[in-house]
Specification:
It is built from 5 helices and 5 strands, in the order E-H-H-H-H-H-E-E-E-E. The chain is an alpha+beta fold. The chain has a single domain, classed as Hotdog Thioesterase (Thiol Ester Dehydrase, Chain A), CATH 3.10.129. A 5-stranded antiparallel β-sheet has the order 1-3-4-5-2. Strand 4 and strand 5 form a beta hairpin. It starts with 13 loop residues before the first strand and ends with a strand. 27% of the residues are buried.
């Protein structure tokens, strides 16, 4: 199991996640369709060509899903009870089809649960970066983490 228990996570701890991922047209198309996002910036090449970006823009929720999903193996795999929330999510640069994304995570805060001694709350900061070194997503995520079994 790759996830870390509450006690194994320390404020300031950083993870660099693998693998990186090149975003394909199929990724963007299927994700947008499955989530019912019919925004033509994500689906219509002619519409997108006339936009400020001049090409199809990858669905930002796909980017958020990547940055959180790729972190699971290193941080929460089998050791979390679930997400408590996503705060201060930003997308400072766009993601385009063909971009290769990588991600890192830093532990920002942690505290023991006030009501349940078998768990604690950890705040993770997830950051996604493209192949040009540009930050494309930053997200603070609260996770309810299990404590190590006795």
């Amino acid at each position: 199991m790759g996830g870390k228990y509450f006690e194994e996570l320390t404020v300031g701890m950083e993870f660099v996640h693998q693998p990186s991922r090149t975003v394909t047209e199929t990724d963007n198309l299927l994700f947008s369709a499955l989530t019912m996002n019919l925004q033509p910036l994500h689906l219509d090449a002619e519409f997108a060509a006339a936009s400020a970006h001049g090409r199809i823009l990858v669905n930002s929720i796909f980017t958020l899903g990547f940055v959180v999903g790729v972190s699971v193996a290193d941080t929460t795999l089998g050791t979390t009870l679930g997400n408590l929330g996503f705060d201060k999510t930003t997308f400072p640069n766009p993601v385009f089809i063909g971009d290769t994304l990588s991600a890192r995570t830093r532990v920002m805060e942690k505290r023991e649960s006030r009501s349940k001694p078998d768990r604690g709350v950890v705040i993770f900061e997830h950051t996604a970066i493209n192949q040009r070194g540009e930050v494309v997503c930053v997200c603070l995520r609260g996770g309810m983490m299990l404590r190590k079994p006795a």
